[in-house]
C-alpha cells in the first residue's frame, strides 16, 4: 500500500513522462483519460472540497472512463479554501492570484515545482522558443523576486533554460518601469546579438510603453515578446490589438512575434497563440492572434454556463480546464471566463454582450475592478 | 443667481411627490393600475414582485423629522439633473424628492430600460395640478453650477462624470450591498429569518440595500439552523412572490456560486434561490443577485471585522434584529451605512438618498 506521499510522487512522475513524450511528439505510455482519472482518484481521496463536489454530483472517479464527466472545482473556491491534496507542511511553493482588496486571493499550493516547470518549459518551448538554437537575452517586465506569482516563476524558469542573461526591470511588483533602464537592457541585447524575448503582463507592457513615450527600441533580429493577462483591477485597459501593434513597433519585432499567453494561477500549464510558430514555418493548429492553443496534456471545453455540460465545438460557453499537470490541487477547474473551443484552439471572450443591467446591487466585477 | 427655495417650499414639493407616489401605490388608482401593467415587462420582476415593490417599498409618507434630515442633506443649485438606474424602479420617488429639495428645476433622465416610473410620477403630479413639476429628458445637458445626481452602476457614473463640464457637481450613488449581522448565541428569534427573506426578495435583490451576506455569530449548529430558517422562508416567498427574469449571466453565476459553496461549505437551494453557508470562512464570496444569500459564521467581533473590512466601502446598510455589539461594530466599520432592523432594509426612512455613502 502506497503512502499518500508516495502516491503523489508517482503521479507526478507519470504526468511528467506524459508531458515529455507529448512534447517530443511521441505517444504517451498512457491515455489522457487513464492518467487523468488516476490523478482525480488521488484528489478525491485527499481534497475535501473535491470529495464534496463528487458526492453532490453522485460521481466516483473509480467508476467512469472519461475525465469530462466528473465535476470541476470552481476557480473561486481557491479563494476560500485550501484546494490541495498534500498538507501545508509539504508546500514548496504557494502561488497566489493577483490581488483585489475586496476578495481573498486564490492560492495554488505545490508539493513540487518539477511538474510545473516541465509543463511550462515544454509548451513555452513549443510556442515561444521553437526556432531558438542559441541562448537568448530575456527582458522581464517584473521584479527579480516575486515568489507568490506563478507567472513570475514561469518567466524565471524560461530565463533559466533559454536566456542566461536576464534583465528584470522592476524593483517590486508595484514599482514603475524605468524607460532608460529598459532602453539599456535592449541595447545590451542588441550588442549581444542573439535574439531577445521581452516578457510581462499586458499591464506591465502598457506601462513600459507609456514610460517610453514613443521612443523606439531595436532588438536583434528574430526577437519576440510574450504578454499575458487582462486588465481587471487595473486603472487602464487597452485593446489587445492596439497593444500588440504598439509592442511590435516599439521593440522592432513583427506582430506575429508578439505572442499572447493565457494562464491562471490555479493551473500548472499555459496556452499560447501560435503566431510565432506560424510565422517561422512550424506546424500549429492556429497562427491567429486571439486563438490560444492548449498543450496535449490539457483539455479545454466550453460548457453550458447553467448546466456545466460540455457544448459542441464552436459554441460559446464558460471554460473548463483539465490540466494533467495539476496533480497537487484540482485537475479539473471550472472558470467563469467565456470562450469558444474549436480544433484550432480556444478563443477567449468577455462578458455576455447585451446582458441586462442588474440595478445598483454590487456585482463581482465591481469588487474586481476596485482592487 | 440661484433662486433659493424656502424650507416650506421644499417640504411642499416632497409632499407633492409622495402624494403622486401614493397614487401609484394604490392598485385601484388608474395610474397604479398602469404601473402594475407596465412595470413587469420593463423591470423583469414578476407581477407579484412589482406589487410588493409598489405596495411596500414605494415611499408614500415622511415623518417631520425625516423631512428635516432630507432637506438638510440636500445642497442648493439652480438645476438638478437626475440620472435614474433601471430595475429598482421605486427608487425614482426618493431620487426625485431629493432633487426637488435641492433645486427649483429638476430634469430627470430615466434609464432607457425603465421608462415607466418617472413619466407616471410626472403625470400624477400634473394631474394634481401642483406647482411642482419636473422635466423628462433623454439627454443630459448640465451647466456649471448644476448638480447631477447619478444612480447606477460604476460605468454609468464614470461616463456621466467624464461628460460633464467643469463646475457641475456630481452626487453619485453607485453599487452597494446590504449585510445582515446576527447574534445567534442561544438561538435566533424565528421571525429574523422570515424578515430577512423579505429583504432579500424585494426587487429580486437588485437594490443597493439588498442583503447578500449574513454574518452570524453562534455555534456551528446555531448558524446552520439560521441558514436553514432563511432557506425555508425563501421557499415560502418563492410561492408568494415568484422571482422574475434573471439574465443568463446571473443564472451562470448562481450555478458557479452553488458549486463553490458545495466545495467550501454547503448550500440550501430552491428553484429560484440559494443560501450558502460557510462555517469557517477564510473570506466571503459575493453571491450573485437574484435571491442568493451567503451566510458566514463569525466567532467574535474581531472575526467580523476581519471578514467585513475588505467590503467596507461597498456596504450600504446593516440589518439586525437589535443593534447589539456585533451590529454596532459593523456599522462603525462601514462608514455611512444605514442601520436598519431586519425586514426594513429595503424601506429606509426618507431622510436622504437611499444610499448615504456618496461617491466622489
Structural commentary:
Chain A has helices at 4-24, 32-46, 48-57, 77-80, 114-128, 150-162, 179-192, 202-212, 240-251, 275-279, 364-369; strands at residues 73-74, 93-96, 107-110, 137-143, 165-170, 196-201, 224-228, 258-262, 271-273, 291-293, 298-303, 316-323, 332-342, 345-349. With 371 residues, chain A is an alpha/beta fold. The longest helix of chain A has 21 residues, at 4-24. By secondary structure, chain B is of the alpha/beta class. Chain B has helices at residues 7-25, 30-43, 47-57, 64-73, 91-100, 117-127, 154-163, 190-201, 220-240, 248-264, 301-308, 325-333; strands at 79-83, 105-109, 135-136, 147-151, 169-173, 177-183, 211-217, 266-269, 274-278, 292-298, 315-320, 338-341. In chain B, the strands form two sheets. Chain B has a seven-stranded mixed β-sheet with strand order 8-9-10-7-6-11-12, sandwiched between helices. In chain B, helix 11 packs parallel to helix 12 (325-333). Chains A and B meet through helix 3, strand 1, helix 4 and helix 11 of A and helix 10 of B.
Summarize this, please?
With 371 residues, chain A is α/β, with parallel strands linked by helices.
- Most extensive interface between two protein chains, with residue counts: A-B, 41 and 54 residues
Indicate the percent of residues in helices of chain B.
Answer: 40-55%
Number of discrete helical segments of chain A: 11
Biggest β-sheet strands, sense, barrel of chain A:
12 strands, mixed
* Radius of gyration from the alpha-carbon trace of chain B, in angstroms: 20 Å
Return the structural class of chain A: alpha/beta
Overall average residue pLDDT of chain A:
91
Provide the low-confidence segments of chain B as ranges: none
Instruction: Give the termini distance of chain B in whole angstroms.
Output: 26 Å
Helix content of chain A: 25-40%
Mean pLDDT of chain B: 93
User: The biggest beta sheet of chain B, please?
Assistant: 7 strands, mixed
Strand order of the largest sheet of chain B: 8-9-10-7-6-11-12
